[in-house]
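Margin note: ligand = iron/sulfur cluster.
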Amino acid sequence: MTHVTDSPRTLLRTCPLCEAVCGLELTLDSDDRIVSVRGDHADPFSKGFICPKGATLGHLDSDPDRLTAPMIRDRATDTWRTASWDEAFGVIRERLPQVSAAHGNQAVGLYLGNPNAHTVAGALYVPLLIRALGTRSLFSASTADQMPKQVSSGLLFGDPLTVAVPDLDRTDYLLMLGANPLESNGSLCTAPDFPGRLKALRQRGGRFVVVDPRRTRTAKLADEHLFVRPGSDAYLLFGIVHTLFAENLTDVRVEVNGLDEVRAAAADFTPELVAGRTGVPAETIVRIARELAAAPTAAVYARIGTCTAEFGTLTQWLVDVVNVLTGNLDTPGGAMFATGAALGIVRSRPFRTARWGSRVRGLPEAMGELPVATLADEILTPGDGQIRAMVTVAGNPVLSAPSGARLDSAFAGLEFMVSVDRYLNETTRHADVILPPPRILQSPHYDFALLNFAVHNYARYSRPLIPLGEGELSEAEVLARLALAVSGQEPQPGLDPLTVVDEIVIAGTLHKAGMAERRGELLGDNTTEQRIDMMLRLGPFGEWASTPDDASEWRGKLNLRVLLDNPHGIDLGPLESRLPGVLRTASRRVELAPPEMLADLERLRARVRAEQPEMVLVGRRQLRSNNSWLHNVGPLVGGSNRCTLHINPEDAARLGLNGLAVVKSAAGTLTVEVEPTDDIMPGVVSLPHGWGHEDSEQSVARAHAGVNANVLTDDSLVDAPSGNAVFNGVPVTLTRA
Ligand SMILES: Nc1nc2c(c(=O)[nH]1)N[C@H]1C(S)=C(S)[C@@H](COP(=O)(O)OP(=O)(O)OC[C@H]3O[C@@H](n4cnc5c(=O)[nH]c(N)nc54)[C@H](O)[C@@H]3O)O[C@H]1N2
Ligand SMILES: Nc1nc2c(c(=O)[nH]1)N[C@H]1C(S)=C(S)[C@@H](COP(=O)(O)OP(=O)(O)OC[C@H]3O[C@@H](n4cnc5c(=O)[nH]c(N)nc54)[C@H](O)[C@@H]3O)O[C@H]1N2
Ligand code: SF4
Ligand SMILES: [Mo]
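Resulting structure:
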């Protein structure tokens, strides 16, 4: 099909690359190539903001190494060839069901990577694949990321998706731990132009304090920066909680259970005790506690540096404990809950973890998933339920999961593997079949996940900007056909698998909502859009919402038509107080002292005086990277080598390091270029993750290979309650190469 248009033309779309959800204005030439990318100034949320990754979307889109057809690997020669969709699905249909037939459903594992949180296909069609596989061998990037926050939120509020975010635009005081939004643009806190919002906070007279073992660009923008020993944030926060109780500074304004238990738990975590472990002086901890209590409004926000650590879940819990104790949970300027416009999953029972354990190490299930830190164990350890085949969707765990080299060899030994991915990379090279999604511009976009964590209520929908060509499949179609293939089924003649699935979901959802007779009213070019329309209509601002409970001008109005008529996005108003309505705890109160958290205190207490390793490793994100997968975009990898080991000059001198160093951990060894800098505290070194492309088929990435930091991280270490991987505070030894 040729697509005839005037040239050039300007089109609008949300950037799918990170959690900031910026509106983009794209200019396309007559061949549908992206010739320019600008921020969309009419977007009420991002207001024209754009970063270097969004700005180079055209380069990503035209990358000659991006896969455009299914690929099949010949195992004997380890060579790849392109194939038709029918052939690719045929191979899967023949091989994968054999594995589950012979060894049971658990023998087929599924790994879901980060971009699933950014795509419509990930939100709407991955659940179908999960059901089709019927396996408990389910893993995702979440357990290398935010699972501690979800577990803690689940325990406190009854729902792991009810996550409080700092009310950035109104707060008077922000305490930020383990986040670097000037590079990352923010996470579990959807805030386009995060840097601008932080500057505005200071300009309106607010105070901004950063806690990080590195003096990051974010720290440099703050009023105050505190170096903290990696992995010790739970102690620091307990010191604050202790002070709030000791000095009678608490001001609890929401209905809670467990206040006395929290007070008792904090009793022995005096600022003096925790100062030794954290490296933050006791008087500073006391002062921060007083400042938080005294500020008219304040929010504590902690992100990945504190999640991917030994006490990840305890830390996330204590963040909200402080927000509650200072009277800042669910109040403007504090930590609040966003109202996403699309109908979410309605949870009927309170959240629980560890409903089952992993086969080999007995690690806890959380949200139906097992920890990715035990994926290699499950593949490598013989026995009933051993994983023998894998499906990966939008992930690169060889570079992103702990003990990456071990996972690499585990994947190499699988009987069969399928990957849905744009690239042949360090992980997908082990697949037998790779199924590529189409161009980003050929996919619709709605942020089902991220808008629930936004600092302002907002909605925006982007239609596919370019139609699919002859023989091209949307990622939704790929997943629908994959779900059939893994069940050993062929599409029925004359029936589109995607439509079949969508009709079932639509009928079921409308029936539950008592709206079955309104099926005919759903708008959209296809059943995917009709589902989106349905979710908007049934969502909190929707035309069909049962309880419009506030004055927002959009309440009771949203549907797909409204979003299509407002292509720059819709401002749905500032965050609103949502308690107790969003609580799913059995008590319908905030459970401030969940037994799971109190039980984990033993581990925390045991380690408070433990001897600390001389040197520990932490990560660092970089503005022009995106985990492992934008290193083939020329403009993002130019300049000097970025995959260097940051080390304090004192440590470098003491250890006699310059040029190349050999870094050893319990898990592995790397040789890496050292970069001494005062911006990192003594005793800590930092290496970015997502690099290590020396064998890549991607030519640009191979020329800027770097090393895989996750060769050093150790999959035997996890945060106990969530099973989350530990990337920060990894003991290492350093010698000159
Ligand atoms: N040491 C260390 N390790 C870390 C972290 C750290 O801070 N330190 N961070 C962790 C975090 S927070 C995360 S989220 C994980 C990320 O872990 P992963 O999700 O496993 O890794 P990514 O590099 O994001 O890989 C994304 C993959 O999706 C593909 N892709 C991109 N767009 C699409 C699409 O639209 N559809 C499909 N099907 N595929 C697509 C890319 O080609 C790439 O292969 O890494 C974790 N690993
Ligand atoms: N440019 C870019 N943007 C991204 C990504 C990317 O790879 N590149 N990845 C995206 C993803 S998947 C995510 S999850 C988000 C993450 O977004 P952020 O949470 O902002 O992640 P980082 O920028 O890695 O910041 C983590 C900080 O924690 C610090 N840190 C390490 N250990 C500790 C510790 O023990 N305690 C404390 N207090 N701090 C510690 C590190 O020094 C680092 O500065 O970013 C997203 N945005
Ligand atoms: S900040 Fe994130 S969403 Fe915005 S342009 Fe950059 S990559 Fe895209
Ligand atoms: Mo992430």
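The pocket of iron/sulfur cluster (ligand 3) is lined by residues 15, 17-18, 20-22, 50-51, 53-54, 185, 192 (CB under 6 Å).
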